[in-house]
Specification:
Elements lengths: L2 E7 L2 E7 L5 H8 L18 E4 L2 E4 L12 E3 L13 H8 L9 H14 L5 H7 L10 H15 L2
Parallel strand pairs: 1-5
Antiparallel strand pairs: 1-2, 3-4, 3-5
Length: 157
């Protein structure tokens, strides 16, 4: 049975009419047309569906939308400012050529932003731990880590 649910996504209120058990990822992609979060494994294990929930990187592929009514949801699209300026980590990914196949890109950026919001100057081990929930299949780990370090240097000044 469908129900009207209001979500706060990327700073805007959205009301959707869906089954309350619908996973957030489906609502983001199908109802709100936000395609940054990707469907990967569907088991909350690969990280391609990550979003920020009140600042915490969280997989969205199995998360029932009814549980999110009062939470602040940020997707990959929400990292960019209204002016079009990219988040410093997005800029660093571009500078370091860290984006490759796109499977993990959403999860790496969301997890990296969550990490940098909590720790402006993470060490290499902290970066590895912060990105641990996201699988990368194309082997750009070293560039991704370098991008987080670059963003950290720019934002911690």
């Amino acid at each position: 049975m469908k129900e009207e649910i209001t979500l706060r996504v990327n700073g805007k209120q959205h009301t959707v009419n869906v089954d309350p058990a619908t996973p957030l990822l489906y609502v983001l992609r199908n109802n709100l047309e936000l395609n940054g979060p990707k469907y990967g494994c569907g088991l909350q294990q690969c990280g391609s569906c990550m979003v920020l929930l009140d600042g915490e990187s969280t997989p969205s592929c199995r998360l029932p939308v009814s549980a999110l009514k009062d939470l602040k949801i940020v997707t990959l699209e929400g990292l960019q400012e209204d002016t079009g300026k990219l988040h410093p980590l997005q800029e660093a990914f571009y500078e370091e050529q860290a984006a490759q196949c796109g499977f993990c890109l959403n999860g790496m950026l969301i997890s990296g932003v969550a990490l940098l919001e909590k720790n402006k100057k993470p060490g290499r081990e902290e970066i590895l731990e912060g990105l641990d929930r996201v699988l990368c299949r194309c082997g750009t780990h070293s560039r991704i880590i370098k991008a987080v370090e670059t963003a950290s240097l720019k934002t911690s000044r």
